[in-house]
Amino acid sequence: MAPMWTPFSSRRTQPRQTARSTPRPRPATARPRTAPRASRRPAGPLPWTRARGVLNLLNLTTPLGIAVALVGRARIRRGPHGLWIAEGYRFRYPMAGAFTVGNVVTTASTIGRLERVMPDILAHEGRHASQYAVLGPAFFPLYSAAAGWSWAVAGHSAAHDHFETGAGLVSGGYLLAGQQVPLRGLFRDAAGAGRRLRALLGRRGGRSRAGTATRSRER
Fold first, then answer.
1. Reduced to 3 states, what is the DSSP secondary structure of residue 181?
2. Contact 64/101 with Cβ under 8 angstroms?
């Protein structure tokens, strides 16, 4: 049948077959693989940091830290790893660049300024928060005793403080990398005597074990 024409249009009612109506096959080219985009969402807190936050809430050290920051008229905001950041603390005590009570890190300055000098300061204070989670309010007298002991034996309140050495003396800004604080004269002599005694006992123990092994072989 011939195609029909209408008086109102000069176009055909059937579509015209053209070369463009059939798509040309494109040559198969290997598309370069791109690396997957990193998620912009911050990583969630680790299980221990979550547990630490809960423990410091239950033992009331975090509420105490928030109360101390508010009394000092500091500005409180959320920080990384479940910590709270309190900046602009008005009081001069305690005398430290930053101090931690529970999960609250308080400073008279700002964390940004502290991190320019001590890049790992938040990691240091986070370890103190973990110590609070384990000890609770007992942290206060134990820390004071450890700081007093460190001052007595070395004239430095942190160099031989178990809590500060555990949190990191370099990351806390107490010492430079590789720097050590020697013990005072009396304690240095006592420590040296203890090391010599341990070495002597170790040598005697080694000789006795060697003799026992020789006698067992002779049998």
1. coil
2. yes
